[in-house]
């Protein structure tokens, strides 16, 4: 019995000494300290320790980011030649041909297809012969 009580006292002493040697962690709330000179109290914000892995190295040289050049836009020709069987017919009888979102209208005077332009509405060469 004497040995068991001596063992309990030694373990209790070791736990007490170990718990007293731990560091104090900062609080997460602000501490208000009233000042004698000023009428408004000072507010101290808690200090939060930053691990060394998150700190930025001052001596390191930052490498510049690579410049990304935009891809050049594909230029479509102004005039193409298409078989009339591959072309589509609009409601008013004009022939057109679509290539990747660009519409070409047939000029009935020379038989070629021209890239769309606003002047085609008034030009009689793009209207079919009746």
Task: Write up what this structure looks like.
The protein has 130 residues and is α+β, with helices and mostly antiparallel strands. It has a domain of 48 residues. Helix content is 15%, strand content 18%. It has one helix and seven strands; from the N terminus they run αβββββββ. Strands 3-7-6-5-4 form a five-stranded antiparallel beta sheet, with no helix packed on it. The termini are far apart.
Strand count: 7
Strand content: 15-25%
Q: How is the largest sheet built, in terms of strand order?
A: 3-7-6-5-4
The percent range for helix content is 10-25%
Q: Can you tell me the overall shape?
A: rod-shaped
Order of helices and strands: HEEEEEEE
Mean pLDDT: 78
Main sheet record:
5 strands, antiparallel
N-C termini distance: 124 Å
Question: What's the quick description here?
Answer:
With 130 residues, the protein is an alpha+beta fold. The protein contains 1 helix and 7 strands, in the order αβββββββ. It has a domain at 79-126.
Comma- or semicolon-separated keywords:
130 residues; alpha+beta; two-stranded antiparallel sheet; rod-shaped
SSE layout and pairing:
Layout: H1 2-20, E1 31-33, E2 42-44, E3 79-80, E4 88-89, E5 95-99, E6 102-106, E7 113-115
Antiparallel strand pairs: 1-2, 3-7, 4-5, 5-6, 6-7
């Amino acid at each position: 019995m004497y040995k068991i009580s001596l063992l309990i006292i030694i373990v209790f002493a070791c736990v007490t000494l170990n718990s007293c040697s731990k560091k104090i962690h900062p609080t997460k709330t602000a501490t208000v300290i009233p000042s004698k000179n000023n009428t408004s109290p000072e507010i101290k914000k808690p200090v939060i320790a930053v691990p060394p892995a998150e700190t930025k190295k001052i001596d390191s040289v930052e490498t510049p980011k690579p410049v990304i050049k935009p891809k050049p836009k594909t230029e479509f020709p102004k005039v193409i030649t298409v078989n009339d069987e591959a072309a589509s017919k609009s409601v008013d009888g004009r022939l057109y041909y679509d290539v990747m979102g660009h519409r070409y209208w047939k000029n009935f005077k020379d038989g070629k297809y021209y890239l769309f332009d606003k002047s085609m509405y008034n030009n009689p060469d793009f209207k079919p012969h009746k």
